């Protein structure tokens, strides 16, 4: 095994800055083969990821974490994407139902520390079911979403999953995203047209005013102290000091030291 740190990805990340999402999807498929999956929360950028996988015929499975308290519109969007785009969508769930969790631990999402525990149990821990199965996970983070995502790299290490996170849409701004959705009539979560700029659990997500930041509707009841759930490693404060362990041969391929596939 070889250590792959965030720092070792710096020059590759720089060279990926002018690549299109489609080129990055193809690089990911060629580099990781069947050890590659995508993650989608069934928000609009996740729908674009699903559409590109289908349009480019990449046959990449899509992982969805159902916390048990998702909006029905989100579940319906997942089912439509699977059926109409011919995708394999893997749904992961937490060990406890929200009812069981509440009976055992109380209503966690009503204070900041409880929210972290709740998000960890209901969003991060379910991902353990696929830990070790994939060397890379495609996400849908975009810098245009602002906050901690304002500088998210295309490639980021994810120590929790021991996998590389790939964000092919990182450089896609709002207007190109909306143009892509309109041009291809992409299936999107209907809550976006009802005032929700981002969409998570029904307990912790509200619509936002046009004058508010995009993430103002997430954990609104907790104030500005809760902004992220912890499922994306680049949302964490210490992300740049992290590293993962992958087979030497694969690290060579990622870093372009084996040149059987380059873009
Ligand atoms: S978003 Fe709210 S309900 Fe969902 S896992 Fe996090 S704290 Fe729990």
Automatic annotation (TrEMBL):
One of its GO terms (molecular function) is metal ion binding. It is found in: Cytoplasm. Its EC number is 1.8.4.10. It catalyses: [thioredoxin]-disulfide + sulfite + AMP + 2 H(+) = adenosine 5'-phosphosulfate + [thioredoxin]-dithiol. The keyword Phosphoprotein does not apply. Catalyzes the formation of sulfite from adenosine 5'-phosphosulfate (APS) using thioredoxin as an electron donor. Binds 1 [4Fe-4S] cluster per subunit. Pathway: Sulfur metabolism; hydrogen sulfide biosynthesis; sulfite from sulfate. It holds the Pfam family PAPS_reduct. The active site is at residue 229. Keywords: Cytoplasm, Iron, Iron-sulfur, Metal-binding, Oxidoreductase. [4Fe-4S] cluster binds at residues 118-119, 201, 204. The lineage of its organism: Bacteria, Pseudomonadati, Planctomycetota, Planctomycetia, Planctomycetales. This is Adenosine 5'-phosphosulfate reductase. One of its GO terms (cellular component) is cytoplasm. One of its GO terms (biological process) is hydrogen sulfide biosynthetic process. Belongs to the PAPS reductase family. CysH subfamily. Residues 43-207 form the Phosphoadenosine phosphosulphate reductase domain. Its cofactor is [4Fe-4S] cluster.
